[in-house]
Amino acid sequence: MKTTIAKVGQFVDQEVTIGAWLAGKRSSGKIAFLQLRDGTGFIQGVVVKAEVGDDIFQQAKNVTQESSLYVTGVVRAEERAPSGFELTVTKVEVLHVAVDYPITPKEHGTEFLMDHRHLWLRSKRQHAVMKIRNEIIRATYEFFNDNDFVKVDPPILTGSAPEGTSELFATKYFDEDAYLSQSGQLYMEAAAMALGRVFSFGPTFRAEKSKTRRHLIEFWMIEPEMAFVEFEENLEIQEQFVSYIVQSVLKNCALELKTLGRDTSKLENIKAPFPRITYDDAITFLQEKGFGDISWGDDFGAPHETAIAEHYDKPVFITKYPTSLKPFYMQPDESREEVVLCADLIAPEGYGEIIGGSQRIHDDHLLKQRIEEHKLSQDAYQWYLDLRKYGSVPHSGFGLGLERTVAWISGVEHVRETIPFPRLLNRLYP
Fold first, then answer.
1. 95: alpha, beta or left, given left = phi > 0 and alpha = psi -120 to 50?
2. How much of the chain exceeds pLDDT 70, in percent?
3. How far is CA 163 from CA 180, 181, 184, 186, 407, in A?
4. Among 84, 117, 106, 113, CA closest to 258
């Protein structure tokens, strides 16, 4: 019976065949232990010389790291094994012998591992991170589908920028200027006016020359937009969504979290509602905590966000930032027009902002005024103004950065480990 490592539990005490790679091995006299992986998981194969004969035993003992194999054996329940099972090997068929595999069990530097990212992905740690990333993606689709959102795909090549062009990659679109998208938001607003509640899930690009552990040049964003949804309801949907994906990972990726050494008690508490703090209160809090150099009107950096987040055991919303700090499309607070109806969601444990969202301006005159104030081309944004001209309604949305969210939930230090092939300031290879 041919199967996968993830499904061996269905075949206890039965003989199965698994197509696998050798992740590692060790031998002790007349027993060889093969650490096998097949993409679905990891399992130990035990080869006993007295049971398989000298030929198979020598073959198993001599096979090299990352060689590909068909391994046949009997599935045994083994409570000491991470997966709960191991394989008593009866046959080994070598498909391809790997010679001098570069990533050995010894310590390797970050740059070496990044140069070999195409191979580093095979490691148990990277496998666990990618499985958690996949579960977050699966749960995202499930959450939005269950809540009657429609998936819409905005363009990646755009003729204008939602937040200005200073951090965009420019290119030529035949005889016009074009940019790689930094957000699908404006297009999602158009989709929301047609379909009510929508979400996109795709790559975005920021030409920001940053080297911090939170930044990538190319990353993936989940961007819902919702017609007839105002500020408070927008926050409620965000906290429900984040709670849902965290609990889904806890439920479906227990082995991966254990592999990464993640303290799951910190995740078990992540359930809505989340605390809220205004920008004003955040400034006061930071000043009281010794950040004497910050004052009203300043933006928050990583140390500020971390200090605020450490005060809570759940993600925390920082709401109602000054208008001057935020993009042109955000709805001002009617009772206080120097701030906008926006919020950043800051993850615990120093992982920073994972969501930015706001209620959007729905008045065409105010939006036109904001476009002028930001010195943007009215012609380029005419289609966006049309949304306020023909049946405008209050509406809201947000964007969640997938890689920062994966880093926080999985507990890894740097976002470079949360995407299969990271694009960093000085890295375009492999």
1. alpha
2. 99
3. 13, 10, 11, 10, 25
4. 84
- Overall number of domains in the chain: 2
Could you please report the per-residue DSSP string of 230-281? Answer: -HHHHHHHHHHHHHHHHHHHHHH-HHHHHHTT--THHHHT--SPPPEEEHHH
pLDDT in tens, 287-304: 999 999 999 999 999 999
Residues 131 and 243 in one domain: yes
**177 inside domain:** yes
Residue 428: pLDDT band (50, 70, 90) is very high
Exposure pattern of 252-279 as b/e (b: 16+ CB <10 Å)?
ebebbbebbebeeebbeebebebebbeb
Q: In terms of residue numbers, what domain contains 358?
A: 118-417
In tens, the pLDDT along 92-139 reads 999 999 999 999 988 999 999 999 999 999 999 999 999 999 999 999
Roughly how many angstroms between the first and final C-alpha of the chain, as a whole number?
37
Q: Is residue 428 part of a domain?
A: no
pTM for this predicted structure = 0.97
Say which CATH number the domain at 40 has: 2.40.50.140
DSSP-assigned letter for residue 214? T
User: Which of the listed residues 96, 129, 154 is the one where a domain comes to its end?
Assistant: 96
